[in-house]
Amino acid sequence: MRDSNPRTVYLKDYTVPEYLIHNVDLSFTLDEKNTRVVSRLTMCRNPASRSSDTSLTLTGENLKLVRVVLNEDSELGDKDYLQTPDSLIIHEVPQQRSFVLTIENTIDPKANTALEGLYLSNGMLCTQCEAEGFRKITYFLDRPDVMATFTTTIVGDKDRFPVLLSNGNRVGGGDLPDNRHWVSWKDPFKKPCYLFALVAGRLECVEDRFTTMSGRDIALQIFVEKHDLDKCDHAMQSLKHAMAWDEQVYGREYDLDLYMIVAVGHFNMGAMENKGLNIFNTKFVLARPDTATDADYENIEGVIGHEYFHNWTGNRITCRDWFQLSLKEGFTVFRDQEFTGDRTSRAVKRIEDVNMLRTRQFAEDAGPLAHPIRPDAYIEINNFYTLTVYEKGAEVVRMLHTLLGAAGFRKGSDLYFERHDGQAVTCDDFVSAMETANGVDLSQFRRWYAQAGTPVVGVAQHFDAAQKTLSLTLSQHCPPTPGQTAKEPLHIPVVTGLINRDGSPALCRLGENEAAAEQVVLELTQAKQAFVFSGLEEEPVVSLLRGFSAPVKPALNRPPEELAFLLSHDPDTFNRWDAGQQLAVQVMSGLIADYRNGAKLAVNPLLIDAYRKVLEQSWDDLSYFSLLMTLPSELYLTEQMRVVDVEAIHHAREAVARALAEQLREPLETLYLRYHRDESGRFDAGAIGRRRIKNTCLSYLAQLDADWARHWSLQQFNTAKNMTDQLAALTVIVNHPHPARQQCLDGFYRQWRHEALVIDKWFAAQAMSPMPGTYERVLGLLGHPAFDIRNPNRVRSLIGAFSQSNPLHFHAADGQGYRFLADRIIELNGLNPQVASRMVGALTSWRRYDENRQNRMKAELERIVSTEVISKDVYELAAKSLA
Ligand code: TRP
Ligand code: ZN
User: Fold this and answer.
1) Domains of the chain, each with CATH number or no CATH
2) Is the pLDDT of residue 417 over 70?
3) Percent composition of the chain: helix, strand, coil (DSSP 3-state, to 5)
4) Which of 22, 124, 173, 325 qualifies as a FRET site for 13, CA 20 to 30 Å off?
5) Please, which residues have CB less than 5 A from ligand 2, an ion?
6) Mutate-to-test residue for ligand 1 from 193, 269, 284, highest number of ligand atoms within 8 A of CB
7) Edge-to-edge strand ranges of the sheet holding 553-555
8) Mean local confidence (pLDDT), 27-36
């Protein structure tokens, strides 16, 4: 597998396909070890191609070729074609008229541990074709701008494969000799092969219906293993809500008569939007109050929505090439974020999304793997399903929404759907539709697609009491990123409001003739630009970047009193929360320095007061209240430090949490007891909020190392009727020296050993614990009978959780965490390159640490790169991290 010189693919080299495929007739004869595939392609030369080559190159990997037939009758011989490890070249095909190419090959799903192409999961056969998995099923033009209609016939044993599914509508089926049966599926919509899917196995199905806005009746089916039938309700409700939402907000209706979702236990990512036949990681389908947390419920709704929304943003309109990935992913993430915001709490959803962006995506943007949301080169496209393409991509779409307004944005999306339905297009086509529909010029805005890195926005304010004006000077600069040193100014929407000293909102009046507004969108387009607000009797406090209106870092050093003021008074729910976060960051940064100097850690009373005020207020949205009460994470603090000191960060944060618990003990205990009463897991905003604030209080009180929290956490663990409460209690117990620690872990395991997704939580809780001995425990868990390195969910819950969510132990100064991770990556590299490569991320930020850690991390990356057999996936990330 060692590609000594892995090939880089460049956006600038894009050319249209030389051939087109109009129609595909597939037939599968299923067998775990030897599945036969016959593919009949109706093709022709692409009139738009300028190439004069008369041969045809199809891509294919790990295929056993049986025969090739041209135009039904002439079977091709050895001299008519050439097979390479990743292609089939047919020397001469008709140029003037369309032709039919029939290819027969076999594949071995059982040997497929990479979970790409056709593979086995718990006895079920299923496919994963995005981005380039179809080539592991049969020879094809495996690129998204080749769109065809597909008919699929599946033949299989009735006992092993009672259910046979593929894309589209079922058009036939029947019995065959030898206890076999067949089913045919036809998908009338043209699609690229990455949206192809096939599922076969012993599955049971939950069924429901949805009537579309034009009155069409759609059958909805969710397929799972039998013992999971009682965990499909929430996914089904989520699907119906998503279908209704897309009609209301975007005017988009579902197009086939049937919508199927299949849940599989072995899956590389979250879910896949295959046309009419979504395939999901069980994690994003299965939920019952006693097995799934409130966060799981929310994620399920979000991912079900995400895949459903892809039907228009991804499937009906797809990507021209993989550099355009953010065209479908950025837009679809934006759509699912808004869906969740409408379904739950807008304020909370926005904070959660920004938290993730500012910790994980900002880190990516500041490291050696930084790339624009539309990358211009890759070695392995699977490595570009990143936080940048997805989450920053969604922020870029959100900025268009902010600049154009909801109505303007809708005009733009309507035009986009009208212009490009049935096509494979570019990010530029999307922006052009927004531009044309609104009569605006977005040429500078387009730089967001090409420029990597997180811009820093500087702020200076000057109040002129005589003129009653406030002049706000904004500036921007973007730090250099690998391969991109010169940066140009971006078009940045900065939503801004003003607040009077008494806490009341001040009206914003920009220029002489503009009407006064509660807030304004400042459009920062130059390197430095001044905005003048008039008609102000006193100098207001500026509330900047409301709702986090752009993915930038404001360089603003506010005095703590001003942050406390904003925490009390900003009407913008995001900025209000963020003021509290910045205040806590300031205090903790001071403590981090104290810790490093060996000084005593004394917490600024201003912070305690600010939190006391929050506690004393009454809140309708208890989830939002909990977020206000939550300290910035260790990962967010990591982002704020020039040289990361994991121990100092951990101890500073603990010191603040302990001080808050000590000094606010009474109100925290009262609040805990107020909401402690059992609610057996209703999933509505009220119940979720009550659980969330109660568990936030418990985790503070646990810092006191006192009997009170020991008692209540054990009590909650033993009596919880829902997973949110049970897991919250277990986490508190596992994160502190609780006498019942081992007993609870054992009990939890025994209780849930038949529920794979709950056992994932059991592994993760142990892997994330700050307690001493965590590394040894993680190492031991690798040998636990329930650990299976071939299951990506298990890998993520043990190895992923330890390396990405336990900075204190992963970054232990002796380097054992790094060695542990590198060993696992090398082992996984041979089994599942995609999952292996996702684990490399924890080592890429080595430059941010002290010299000792730098050397140790680097040495492990070097060890990975010099592995004899290395996948393109792992090679690309490890090599770029070292560069
Ligand atoms: N397109 C999928 C989504 O965003 C994600 C995806 C890409 C994926 N490649 C994958 C899922 C490989 C599973 C395996 O929803
Ligand atoms: Zn997606």
Assistant:
1) 1-46+54-112+135-200 (2.60.40.1730), 753-883 (1.25.50.10)
2) yes
3) 45, 20, 35
4) 22
5) 329, 332
6) 269
7) 528-533, 469-477, 456-464, 553-555
8) 98
Residue 4's pLDDT band (boundaries 50, 70, 90)?
low
Largest CA distance in the chain: 95
Q: How confident is the model at residue 1 (pLDDT cuts 50, 70, 90)?
A: very low
Buried-exposed string 457-467: b where 16+ CB fall within 10 A, e elsewhere: bebebeeeeee
The secondary structure of residue 231, as a DSSP letter, is G
- Give residues (CB < 6 A) around ligand 1: 128, 130-131, 268-269, 271-273, 306-307, 329, 385
Do you know the residue count of the chain? 883
When pLDDT is averaged across residues 93-116 and rounded to a whole number, the result is 98
Residues 6+ apart with CB under 8 A from 623: 344, 345, 348, 685, 688, 689, 692, 693
Residue 253 · residue 216 · CB < 8 Å: yes
CA distance 669 to 671: 5
C-alpha 273 – ligand 1 centre gap (Å):
8
Looking at residue 688, the DSSP 8-state letter turns out to be H
Helix (H) / strand (E) element for 277: namely: strand 277-281
475 forms bridges with which residues in the sheet?
458, 528
CB 536 within 8 A of CB 506: yes
Beta-carbon count within 10 A of 170 CB: 14
* pLDDT for res 681: 81
Token pair of 405, please? 């307004």
**How do strand 528-533 and strand 469-477 relate by DSSP bridges?**
antiparallel
Angle between helices 665-675 and 646-663 in degrees, nearest 10: 80
Q: Name the residue at shortest CA distance from atom 7 of ligand 1.
A: 130
Tokens of 854: 């730098």
- Active centre residues (catalytic): 307
Mutational pocket test of ligand 1: of 112, 118, 130, the residue with most ligand atoms within 8 Å of the beta carbon: 130
C-alpha dist (Å) from residue 521 to 378, 550, 551, 596, 840: 36, 11, 15, 42, 39
Instruction: Enumerate the β-bridge partners of residue 259.
Output: 220
- Mutate which of 193, 268, 304 for ligand 1? The one with the most ligand atoms within 8 Å of its CB, which is 268
Residue type, 766: Q
User: Within 13 Å and on the Cβ side, how many CA atoms surround 114?
Assistant: 21
Tell me the mean pLDDT in the region 155-180.
Answer: 98
Q: Assess contact for 374 and 10: CB atoms under 8 A.
A: no
> What are the tens digits of pLDDT across the range 443-462?
999 999 999 999 999 999 99
Rounded distance from Cα 309 to ligand 2 centre (Å): 9
Which atom of ligand 1 is the closest one to the Cα of 332? 4
Q: Angle of helix 833-844 relative to helix 872-882, nearest 10 degrees?
A: 10
Between the CA of 262 and the centroid of ligand 1 the distance, in Å, is 14
